[in-house]
Specification:
Helix content: 55-70%
Number of strands: 2
Strand order of the largest sheet: 1-2
Radius of gyration: 19 Å
Largest sheet: 2 strands, antiparallel
Strand content: under 5%
Distance between the termini: 44 Å
């Protein structure tokens, strides 16, 4: 298991070793390592690896204490229920429906961050097949999808809506992530990996659009009879 994790983290890290060139194709996919989000990615990857390698010395014992104290009681289930990307979807719908300055770009940002976060999280789950700490028959432990979705959401909110809303979103994301440890659905390194993926894509895509002048593709326009809105897609090449 340790060897698998080391190999996966290594290849993710070097997938774009020329870290200041995102390129024109799939640049949002590689944005965690080709924009300033690389600092989040590298730090998170190092912490994930440290937590995984430290399981026998301190990580498992720390998690056992958390589980035994059961800080969240039955509220941990609430974190599990809302952590399936519902916050991400609500943000997108809210931006499209209620509008506001740059609402289309913000909605697209959330869509893109959530899409890539899901793809990478799902791919790692099916590649590594780690057992959950409290449910060993389930081999989808690494990384935590709840944590990756929650921190993709929080990062996009912070990037687009400021640190007041962003701070509240990060508190919610932290609660969701902690609930996965509290309820024995994930190891600590699973959660750290999810946090890293979500934050890396939330900020990486933001930096890619802002600093690398990548265009947005989607917009909402009035229908012909002015009785509604239509989703418009445009691609420049």
């Amino acid at each position: 298991m340790k060897l698998k994790l080391l190999i996966v983290l290594f290849f993710i890290s070097i997938s774009n070793v020329r870290a200041n060139e995102c390129g024109s194709w799939f640049s949002n996919f590689t944005s965690p390592v080709c924009t300033d989000a690389k600092y989040i990615f590298w730090t998170g990857a190092a912490l994930t690896l440290a937590l995984r390698l430290g399981r026998e010395t301190f990580t498992d014992e720390a998690q056992r204490r958390v589980v035994n104290k059961n800080h969240l009681k039955h509220w941990g289930e609430v974190g599990g229920d809302i952590g399936y990307g519902y916050l991400n979807g609500a943000y997108v719908l809210g931006k499209f429906i209620f509008g506001g300055k740059n609402s289309n770009q913000h909605a697209e940002h959330m869509l893109e961050a959530s899409f890539y976060t899901f793809g990478v999280t799902y791919g790692l789950k099916k590649s590594i097949r780690e057992r959950r700490p409290g449910y060993p028959e389930d081999r989808d432990s690494f990384p935590s999808g709840h944590s990756s979705f929650a921190f993709a959401f929080a990062s996009v909110v912070a990037a687009n809506d400021g640190w007041v809303w962003g701070g509240a979103a990060h508190l919610m994301a932290s609660y969701i992530s902690f609930s996965r440890i509290n309820d024995r659905w994930h190891h600590m390194h699973d959660v750290m990996a999810g946090i890293t993926i979500g934050m890396s894509y939330g900020w990486g895509i933001y930096f890619n659009h802002k600093n690398h002048t990548k265009p947005y593709w989607f917009s909402m326009i009035p229908t012909q009879d002015l009785n509604g809105l239509a989703l418009n897609y445009g691609y420049r090449f």
